[in-house]
Write a structure and sequence with these properties.
The protein contains ten helices and 13 strands. With 327 residues, the chain is of the alpha/beta class. The chain has one domain: Rossmann fold (3-Layer(aba) Sandwich). The strands form four sheets. It has a seven-stranded parallel beta sheet with strand order 3-2-1-4-5-6-11, with helices on both faces. The chain has a two-stranded parallel ribbon with strand order 7-10. The chain has a two-stranded parallel sheet with strand order 8-13. The longest helix is centred in the first third of the chain and has 22 residues. It is globular.
């Protein structure tokens, strides 16, 4: 039986890793067809996927264009949709709140409406965010899915709206929708807009004598839950295939880590010694939640998922990625 999979945001950090995960088992190649869509594929290198021939197709689609989204889903009629596409930068969302809401909420609603109209049995994973939880009263308690939502930045507000829309479409129209509240992803290929990848890039530049041995940082005293992107996409696959529709799943490591501790690990991987760290106040967020870390017990219990990558391996692979990219 041919399984037709639609991936939105395929050219992004998570989209590339998800596609690699779905296609890594060559024995499954004849049993799937993937349509990957993104807003801009001009600079997207699809060489990694050419070996799969016609099993993977690509299309440029603006998800806020209702007619285009409806046309794509009406023709393709997917069996599964991984909705990854988003404006996912918190800092950018403060500068562009309207654009963030337009992309994240209206784009998601168009996906839901099209699925309702043309393939209501399609299983849909809506990737949302742990930023929805906001600050918690107890910093020593891991957040589970029953915690109240209290978003404190425009990105989190937009994803909270999509989270609620997804739940309502599942209950009102019986669509098999699954929701992830994803904590921080890290790993090779991530944009330098994100904190750990930014650190890794700066260290790679220092190692290549392209930057003075000084790392500029923002608030490194915050604690976050960091999960390797390769474990995250495995979780997404497990949720859409083994999860319970209408349920919310935390996708996280379950461990609280201070950002400064991860910075120290990265610095220890450098060839240089005596690297200095300097605070750049312009890198601070308008509101910065001190501690966010999650409980992944529900995800494990419902799907059998477990992470494979240590944070040390993730950091080393991210640094190696930047060293290779910088030449």
């Amino acid at each position: 039986m041919l399984l037709k999979i639609l991936i939105t945001g395929i050219a992004g950090f998570v989209g590339k890793h998800l596609t690699s995960y779905l296609t890594k088992d060559e024995s499954k190649e004849a049993n799937y067809k993937i349509l990957g869509i993104d807003l801009n594929l001009k600079d997207f290198d699809s060489d990694d996927y050419k070996k799969h021939g016609r099993k993977i197709e690509f299309a440029e689609v603006d998800l806020t264009n209702r007619e285009k989204v409806f046309s794509i889903i009406r023709k393709f009629k997917p069996d599964q949709v991984y909705h990854l596409a988003a404006q996912s930068s918190v800092s950018y969302s403060w500068e562009n709140p309207v654009e963030t809401f337009r992309v994240n909420v209206f784009g998601g609603i168009n996906i839901l409406e099209a699925i309702k109209s043309f393939c209501p049995q399609c299983r849909v994973l809506m990737v949302c965010t742990a930023e929805e939880y906001g600050e918690t009263k107890s910093e020593d308690k891991a957040i589970d899915e029953n915690f109240r939502i209290y978003p404190q930045n425009p990105y989190a507000i937009s994803k909270s709206a999509l989270d609620f829309f997804s739940s309502v479409y599942c209950s009102a129209y019986r669509l098999p929708v699954f929701i992830s509240r994803s904590f921080n992803h890290i790993g090779p290929g991530q944009s330098e807009r994100f904190v750990i990848s930014d650190f890794a890039r700066q260290i790679a530049l220092i190692d290549k004598d392209m930057q003075e041995p000084v790392i500029m940082v923002g608030n490194v005293e915050s604690c976050r839950d960091f999960l390797d992107v390769r474990d995250a996409v495995k979780a997404y696959n497990y949720i859409i295939n083994r999860g319970i529709k209408g349920q919310v799943y935390n996708v996280c490591s379950g461990e609280k880590r201070k950002i400064s501790d991860l910075l120290d690990i990265l610095i220890s991987l450098s060839k240089k010694r005596n690297i200095k760290v300097e605070i750049d106040r312009s890198r601070f967020r308008a509101i910065d939640v001190k501690t966010i870390y999650g409980n992944n017990g529900k995800l494990k219990a419902h799907t059998g998922w477990s992470p494979e990558y240590s944070v040390e391996q993730s950091l080393e692979d991210t640094l190696d990625y930047w060293k290779e990219k910088l030449g």
